Amino acid sequence: ESQWGLELPDPSWNGYPLHQAWKDHMAKELDTVISFWTDYSHDQEYGGSFSCLSRNGKLYDELKYLLPLGKQVGMYCRLYRTVERFRRAELLGAAKPGGEFLIRFARVEPPAKKCAFSVTKDGTPVKVQRTLFSESYYTLAMNERWRVTEETRYQNEAVEMLDRIVYWVRVDSSELSWTRFSRTHKAEDLAVPTMLLHLVDQLQEEDEEMSKKYAELEDWGVQRILKHLQVAVLDNISEDGQGLPGAFGREQNPGQAIEAGRYLLQDAQREGDTQLRDQVIDKFLLLPFHSGWDAEHGGFYSFRDVDNWVPHRLEWDMKLWWPHCEAMIAFLMGYSDSGDPTLLKIFNQVAEYTFCHFRDLVYREWYGYLIEDGRVGLSIKGGLYKGCYYNPQCMAMCEQILGALLQRTEDSK
Amino acid sequence: ESQWGLELPDPSWNGYPLHQAWKDHMAKELDTVISFWTDYSHDQEYGGSFSCLSRNGKLYDELKYLLPLGKQVGMYCRLYRTVERFRRAELLGAAKPGGEFLIRFARVEPPAKKCAFSVTKDGTPVKVQRTLFSESYYTLAMNERWRVTEETRYQNEAVEMLDRIVYWVRVDSSELSWTRFSRTHKAEDLAVPTMLLHLVDQLQEEDEEMSKKYAELEDWGVQRILKHLQVAVLDNISEDGQGLPGAFGREQNPGQAIEAGRYLLQDAQREGDTQLRDQVIDKFLLLPFHSGWDAEHGGFYSFRDVDNWVPHRLEWDMKLWWPHCEAMIAFLMGYSDSGDPTLLKIFNQVAEYTFCHFRDLVYREWYGYLIEDGRVGLSIKGGLYKGCYYNPQCMAMCEQILGALLQRTEDSK
């Protein structure tokens, strides 16, 4: 395999040339990353794809993990639909049986909606988690799968599953085993309303019927996320929006806060709500950046404690790829929406760290897990959680936002 | 707080002087560690103790975590019972209300036996896990609590709980939510039969009735552990003793293998089974040592992959305190039982690494979590899992084994 070196844009270039350089860079790297997955991940035999790929694309686990599988089907469809150069038979040819595999095998005891966390390559369930994330990425995949071929059974599945997830979150979670035992401190993880807002965005996209159906849920998601803003954006709060005692209650997850902020920004954009936009930039982007960025080595910490105790998570000081992807999108989007040059500066800083540390110079795709000082902790390119998702999504969105910024400059000439 | 420097025994001293030096070292350090917990952890108001203590003993979380709480009550009682210099009112005075707190508040919905993972300081349940480890250390605490004051309600609780745990493991685990969903690859974690064998040992100790009652369970535990020995000691196998597909199936946990080996050694000792002893030393001590020890930086890795893929756990290359504690006990015990000097050499090597890296030279107690190169990853002295347990147990057992070795040398003079 050849070297995949790529020169980074020079941040001293300002405005137009810098935007153009980053846009080219994102596009080129997006192509490279997608080629890794099309070359190595597809299961020609049973459909769908494998996510457990080593540094050079070797399969190290034949189980199919539902989170990365749902993400990859969704990502292939979205690229096929929305990016001209990805409208290729290769992507559709993998996404179609991938969607079929999911609709047939993801649910543990169909017609019940609970999905597996992992299944064998031919679809027998292996593990089930007490969360709603397998189901969420299943929903995303189903909706995207419907958008590319308009087979209604996929959209029906997406809507039914989302409605079930909402029921678990807002009415009764016993199917997830969340409420099997009485608990006084029932916590809400920021990932949950963020995931719901993400799914609402997905289903509402250019769809008037769904926009109406999920308008109330959208408001609910925004309000739930905003409740996590206390002294800082806290990762866990009580169901009635209060702080929680102990280390869990003080936990900050900078990547999760910024990801939530990105969905809030999109909402503020749609609603033309500049007050929300400014609040989000201030509290969900800049605040987690300042508390979460490692001033010594660079990169986002995985966890911080709001009172500066040592976070109790073993991986607290590791640098993970996805918060960096979400931060690039969020800061570029914030800059595009507000024109604040501070946000562009931070985008450049995060992008430079990310491309210098997470990219592999020898083989394609990114590392996902670095230790504090930026060296590689796990050399895998995919695993139980990491698949073809966060970095291609980031590059596709950045390419698109940068394109729009360049167009604006052109138009104003 | 003063400095807690301590000179390490010189390994070039052989035999008697080295044993004596290590024995003195263990005794002194055991006293130091216990003084940390008696000074900082006790809850005078509601009884029991807190485990979330920072580097210098400050409380960073007022929730009570049931694993370290059960362990601490058990450890205090055992030291009080078995080590002359710990027969102090201070230890009993903390263990009694600690046991009372557990019997009143550990179970989530008494009389059902499922225990919480964490409770508020006054005993309201907060979190519940789908495992049996809270219940196991509860059992240990109840049995020890009974041994120091002979209040039968504690022993009744211990026996009832152990019987329930056995029911979950061997008959029906639905109360733990293990079998809520059908699974083809039901896995057995090596920690489960190891925990059961540990509890059997605990209840059988100098108790003929219990020795009889749990004789069959003891055999079962030994046989289940031995089934994990395949190409190496595998952390996860199927319920019928077969290897499992994927990364989980290839997972090795050197600390867990050595801990299991230590309980097998004790069993071989009791039964006078030298064939089992030799097999255990070879496969459960030396094999995990050779595959699990980091030849470059020293210390045990947390996880390894039997085919040398990168383990999928984020903390795979971290060095945790407890495997080092278990290894010191196991290799010293193996040496004492077999006379093989290789095992003594490894004990010295592990002990030297452990005392150089996990001990804090400024404040008392040990760090629990180092990064690969031996630097401190989390500076906490206690947390959700780490409490007053593995290192005092290690030092108390090593002190005792070394004492017996010295006595043997005296006797043979």
Description:
The structure is a homodimer of 413-residue chains. Chain A is mainly alpha-helical. Helix content of chain A is 55%, strand content 6%. Chain A folds into two domains: 1-41 and 270-413, Glycosyltransferase, CATH 1.50.10.10; 46-129 and 131-176, Glycosyltransferase. Chain A contains 14 helices and ten strands. In chain A, the strands form four sheets. A three-stranded antiparallel beta sheet of chain A has the order 1-2-3. In chain A, strands 8-9-10 form a three-stranded antiparallel beta sheet. In chain A, a hairpin with a 5-residue loop joins β9 (369-370) and β10 (376-378). The first copy, chain A, is globular. The N and C termini of chain A lie far apart (44 Å). At the A-B interface, β3 of A face β3 of B. Chains A, B: Pfam families: GlcNAc_2-epim (PF07221). Chains A, B: Its EC number is 5.1.3.8. Chains A, B: InterPro entries: 6-hairpin_glycosidase_sf (IPR008928), 6hp_glycosidase-like_sf (IPR012341), AGE/CE (IPR010819).
Summarize the structure.
Chain A contains 14 helices and ten strands. Chain A is mainly alpha-helical. Chain A has two domains: 1-41 and 270-413, Glycosyltransferase; 46-129 and 131-176, Alpha/alpha barrel (Glycosyltransferase), CATH 1.50.10.20.
Strand order of the largest sheet of chain A: 1-2-3
Largest interface: A-B, 46 and 46 residues
> Secondary-structure element order of chain A, as H and E?
HEHHEEHHEHHHEHEHHEEHHEEH
Distance, first to last CA of chain A? 44 Å
Name the helicity range of chain A.
Answer: 40-55%
Q: How big is the Rg of chain A?
A: 20 Å
What do the pLDDT scores of chain A average to? 94
Q: How many domains comprise the coordinates of chain A?
A: 2
Shape of chain A: globular
The CATH level-2 architecture of the largest domain in chain A is identified as: Alpha/alpha barrel
The CATH topology of the largest domain in chain A turns out to be Glycosyltransferase
CATH class wording of the largest domain in chain A: Mainly Alpha
What's the β-strand tally of chain A? 10
Main beta sheet of chain A: 3 strands, antiparallel
Q: Proportion of β residues of chain A?
A: 5-15%
Low-pLDDT stretches of chain A are: none
What oligomerization state is this entry in? Answer: homodimer
SSE-based structural type of chain A: mainly alpha
Catalytic activity (chains A, B): an N-acyl-D-glucosamine = an N-acyl-D-mannosamine
Subunit structure (chains A, B): Homodimer. Forms a heterodimer with renin and inhibits its activity.
Function (chains A, B): Catalyzes the interconversion of N-acetylglucosamine to N-acetylmannosamine. Involved in the N-glycolylneuraminic acid (Neu5Gc) degradation pathway.
Protein name (chains A, B): N-acylglucosamine 2-epimerase
